[in-house]
Amino acid sequence: MSILITGGAGYIGSHTCVTLIEAGYEVIIYDNLSNASHESIKRIEMITEQDITLIEADIQDKQALHKVFETYTIDAVIHFAGLKAVGESVQKPLTYYQNNIAGTLTLLEVMQAHHCKQIVFSSSATVYGDPASCPITEDFPLSATNPYGRSKLFIEEILRDMYRSDTEWKIVLLRYFNPIGAHPSGTIGEDPNGIPNNLVPFIAQTAIGKRDSLAIFGDDYDTHDGTGVRDYIHVMDLAQGHLDALDRISTFSEVMTINLGTGKGYSVLDVLKAFEKSVGKTIPYHIAPRRPGDIASCYADPSYAKKILGWQATRDINQMCQDSWRWQSNNPNGYNKEAQ
Ligand code: NAD
Ligand code: UDP
Asked: pLDDT for 319-335, tens place per residue?
């Protein structure tokens, strides 16, 4: 089976490529490298010992997409490509809607033209907005507080409409909680541009000395220690979830909406402690004001994923931190080898 992986050079996409290749799938990566590099493709090749086909193009480029479907027989698409920075989406809503929503429309149009009707889409726990309680099941009310989240909500609705118009579509919406960690080899991992927005990349860069101190955004939330609680999930477990979804996609007779999380909530201080254990030293931090838009707690009820996909997360917070640290310490400047 040949799988087109949009955004396959990025963080979650690169790990999923490795998992799919090791399971015997052929992958074709389609990525404009707006947030990734050729180096990540080389690293996937190193791990899998296979040559990777990279189509360096934009999902908004209809002709380039048509060419891919004319050249290869694509059985299914995993659609990771998208912009993902919440703050930037508030500043540049049109860029986010154009890239994420218009790009998805173009992709779907081309898939339809080539009778490729199987797609796994990267959605997010952000579609639950500020949940009334935790753990969160898939039937919780949906809302969004920023253009990034709204782009995910709209795309979910567009995909449901595709299915309503033609029930031959096989669609899986995977709602990720907080992906962290890296491939255990330390060869591929998350490589944020500039100052990281997310917790674990910031902790990792502080641990390696690139940042002075972690700002903990608020210690007065209604949580066990006052800091924000999230459901951190190892990126390799996430990759396995995509494999399990692909393995079953042809059997689904409705749009499947599935949480991918561990079901466990860890606070910022819990994560910091686990990371310190991996590094073997303390990491400087200070308490800062709450970050606007942040919520107190967010963690999944992952039981539906177990029921439908036979999937559950297997790696704990210590392994997540150890693997993030191995990636960070092996690659202090990410994929930018020249700067190392
Ligand atoms: P990433 O930025 O590392 O990967 C996205 C990839 O898509 C990048 O390689 C980028 O170059 C590519 N891309 C972006 N726009 C494109 C376009 N128009 N055409 C072609 N390629 C394009 O991000 P990630 O963390 O791997 O996230 C993958 C997907 O998962 C995204 O859709 C993201 O919204 C979603 N998601 C991520 C998280 C997270 O915390 N990382 C959580 C929930 C959902
Ligand atoms: N966080 C923090 N300092 C940082 C980055 C994040 O205290 O530099 C906190 C944030 O307030 C939240 C948690 O860490 O409680 C996870 O934040 P992240 O941005 O990684 O994910 P998201 O907010 O999307 O769940």
From this structure: 999 999 999 999 999 99
Distances (CA, A) of 273 to 77, 121, 203, 216: 38, 33, 10, 13
Q: Is the dihedral of CA 208, 212, 214, 219 positive or negative?
A: positive
Q: Indicate which residue's Cα is closest to atom 13 of ligand 1.
A: 81
Contact 330, 188 (CB under 8 A): no
pLDDT tens per residue, range 129-145: 999 999 999 999 999 98
Structure tokens belonging to residue 8: 């396959």
Into which CATH architecture does domain 2-182+232-261+301-314 fall? 3-Layer(aba) Sandwich (3.40)
Query: What is the 1 CA–ligand 1 centroid distance (Å)?
Result: 23
Q: Given pLDDT bands bounded at 50, 70 and 90, which one contains residue 340?
A: very low
Terminal C-alpha separation, the chain: 38
Under DSSP, the state recorded for 93 is: H
Q: In this structure, how many other beta carbons lie within 10 angstroms of the beta carbon of residue 225?
A: 12
* Euclidean distance between CA atoms 227 and 220, whole angstroms: 7
Annotated active-site residue 11? The verdict is no
Give the Cβ contact number of residue 303 at 10 Å: 14
Find out whether the beta carbon of 219 lies less than 6 Å from any atom of ligand 2. no
Do 182 and 323 meet the contact criterion of CB atoms below 8 Å apart?
yes
Mean pLDDT in residue range 289-315: 97
pTM of the model: 0.98
pLDDT of res. 336: 87
DSSP class of 337 = G
Which residue of the set 30, 96, 148, 176 is catalytic? 148
Q: List, for residues 30-67, the tens digit of each pLDDT value.
A: 999 999 999 999 999 999 999 999 999 999 999 999 99
In angstroms, what is the span from residue 287 Cα to ligand 2's centroid? 13
For the chain, domain boundaries: 2-182+232-261+301-314
